[in-house]
Structures are given as C-alpha cells and as structure tokens.
User: What shape does this take?
Amino acid sequence: MESWRLIDLGMAEPLEAQTFYEAVALAISRDLSPNTLLLCQPASPYVCLGYHQELEREIDLEYCRRTGLPIIRRSQGGGATYLNSDQIFYQVTASRESSAIPARVEDLFEKLLKAPVQVYRRLGLPAEFKPVNDVVVGGRKISGNGAGLIDSAVVLVGNIILDLDYDSMSRVLRVPDEKFRNKMVKSMSEWVTSLKREVGHVPEADEIKMLLKEAFEVVLEIRLQKAEPSGEERRIWEEEVKPKHLSAEWLQMKGGRSLSEGLRAVKIAGDLHLAEVDHKAGKLIRVRAELRGQEIQDISITGDFFMVPEETLLRLQEALMGARLEESDLEQRIGKVLEESGAQIPGMRPRDFVEAILKLGEALPS
Assistant: This one.
C-alpha cells in the first residue's frame, strides 16, 4: 500500500488555490516530493479560463475589470467558469509510475471519480459517475473534473460543489445578447446542481474534507498522511508557476481554435452545450439551440426573414426537436414541415435553414 501526502491549503487566495498543485506536480516529476492529494477552497471569487480557450471570445473582460474579478488560465482544458469559496477543490498529483494511477485518461476519470461519488453518497445523495468526467445527481452535474500531465506527473482536479451562483456564472461569460444569457442561466439551473440545492444546507468543510480523505484512500488503496508543502514546492511555485500565470503571454495566448464571428457555444454540463450561430443567406437566420452531443434538445430560430404563414416557424422548431446535426435528417424534417404547410419564404430556400443549423456543429468544441 502506497503512502501519500495529504496537504490542506485551507482558504487560499485564488492563484494559489488554482495553481499550487502545479508546483507539487513539478516537484514530483523531479523526484523531490511524494504523491499528493491537495484540498483547498478559494478565499475569494475569480474566473477560470480553460487552457484551449481564447480570452477575448470567452470572458466579458469589461465586467471582470469593473468588478475586480481576477482571471486565471488553468493548465487543463475545459470551459470558462466562475469559482468561489462555495467549492472545495481536490487535486490529485502523482507519478505515472504509481500503481494507483491508470494509464488511460478515461480509466483515470472512472477510477478516481469514485471518490467524490462516495462523498456525495455519504452525504445522502444518489451520485453517479457519468463518462467522461462528471459526477451527477438525478442527471444534474454536481462535480466538474479535469486531468492532464505536468512533466511526468499525472494530475486530476475537481470540486465538491457546496452552492452555486448561477447569475455570476453566466455574467462573467461573453455572450451575444441578454436573451442568450437568460437562456444560459435557465439551462445551468436545470443541468448543474449543488449540495445546498439537493440537501437544503451546506455541510461543514472539515466534514467534507474528511470524507474526501477516506474516499480517496479506499479508491486508490493508499494511506494519506497529513503534511505541509515543502520549501522546494514553495520555491517552485513562487519562481516558476506564479510568474507564468501572472504573465500576459500565458493569459492571452491563443490556445483555442479560432471561431468565425457569429458562432458561440457554452458548455452547460457533460456533453450538453448552448450554442448560437448567425447565418446570412438572403436574410439573416439566427439559431440558438441546446445540444446534447450532436442532438438538438431545444431550438429557437429568429432573424429578419419572412415566413408565411407565420406559425410555420413554431411547427418547424417542434419538428427539429431530437434531430441530429446531419444534413439528411435536417433536410427531411425541414422539407416536410415547409411542404405540408405550404409556407412561403421570400428570397430564401429551405436549404438556407439546413445550412444555418449545421453551423451549430462548427461552434461546438472538437
């Protein structure tokens, strides 16, 4: 049975809460530190940007500047989000040589996320692992997780969600308009949840940390010994990790693919995204949809086109529920509605609506 460290950083300022595990991972890679589980809470709110994302396209920079919210780009992928002390972070950092750590990322998530699942179940919730990297309760996400390599160390980071501020979560993101933001708040509240929402109160942080310790010991078959960060880890963080994350080059790097204007997608939970696209044909077509993978869960079509009779558009939106972003499926559904209704769309073709909806796929992460 391996012996690991348990480091509790307590209430840490945002940059330390978000990045100190990188210093630990570098120390592990250099054979300076043993495998470690870190626990912490952000002492104040901040915005966290995914490694592959573009700062200007994802974040409402003026709002963050006005409200004094720091923005930190993390070293793992995923989407931008608002974080505060209503999350308890768990950060697993280990050598790839550890017998407790699976080699494949999918297996890593499946094994290690049994720990937060156990914690939520101990707190009375029927939590389940949902591939690839979520923990859900009643179909709603209640833990977000990421993983990667730092030098030769494996890292898995995630959170126990105590409570959620849906308005702030939506407000920090750059969106096309307020209708999109309102829809995003609604979708988040439907698909992302918290301990407070599910059990009516927030358990003590120390209780949750003890449950995390016990769960990771069982899942990884290890012993966790309480410890403090080493002097070498503090030095690595101060001299290597912290300067990198405070640099304009790191924050503003073009890590993600560049999307065309008029395309926007926000991850809600798991493979559920809210996307909006603009398509200029004879007239403007704007499509906003909730997508699970490539399947349309909800859709709204607006624009400056004319469709007579007007109620045909409602029928068209209803017919597209459950459709996949596949040309043949969309052509069949759209063509059937327009033919049966005898609709007229001056200056437009049914094909224009097919092309507009297919653009949703361009907005989704690849």
Notes: Residues 14-29 form the longest helix (16 residues). The chain has two domains: 2-252, 263-363.
